[in-house]
Amino acid sequence: MLDYLITELSSDETQRTPGQRAFLLAVAALMDMRYPFTVGHSKRVARYATDIAVEIGLDSEFKRTLGFAGRVHDIGKVGISRTYLDKQGELTRDEMKEIQRHPLLSYEIVLEVTSLENVANIVLHHHERVDGHGYPHGLVEEAIPLGSRILCVADSFDAMTSERSYKPAMKVETALHELEQGASTQFDPGIVQAFIATFRRPNPNYLCTAYTNPYVQDRQEQGKIEAE
Ligand SMILES: [Fe+2]
Predict the structure, then answer these.
(1) Which DSSP letter does residue 116 get?
(2) Is the full-model pTM beyond 0.85?
(3) Distance 177 CA to ligand 1 centre (A)
(4) How far apart are CA 26 and CA 32, in angstroms?
């Protein structure tokens, strides 16, 4: 199972230190073992996030940081009971609170293993909302780190367009509309626009790579995505 990860890491992850590579490898493998239904999620989130970073003109160092944060943003879920993560149907308030601990757990793991405070901070705040109703700290607008605001859009889009045991995949156009609807409440509106701009380009890279959400790829192959 590790073969594809090793191949992948030997190509585009060469800028990282050996310790960081090993950490990423272990985390990615662990997540695949525990949550096979989300295989590829962190990879796609990293890809969407780095494309947004390019679109808004962020430098390559920030892009690398963001890519790494995308890969590890949900690792804290290893510390959350599967009883809650896999639960079908509505969660109780206490169960929801337990799941909402995962950004803090991700933060602590990243900091413990890599000492990368910038990555850890991005991960910590990836479920904040610009209206202040997110978690864990209820930060508002630009008090939320830029990387976290980017990750939030990328993460939400992939969650919406992916099939889960408890829901079907949303159509791409519907998901993009949902992002627009959530601009200025859940999402930073500028980042939503940047993401949509990357998505509208002819032949966006992530629609034709092995990192692609299979559902999104299928839609493109069927000619049902209108790339403008
Ligand atoms: Fe998360």
Answers:
(1) -
(2) no
(3) 21
(4) 10
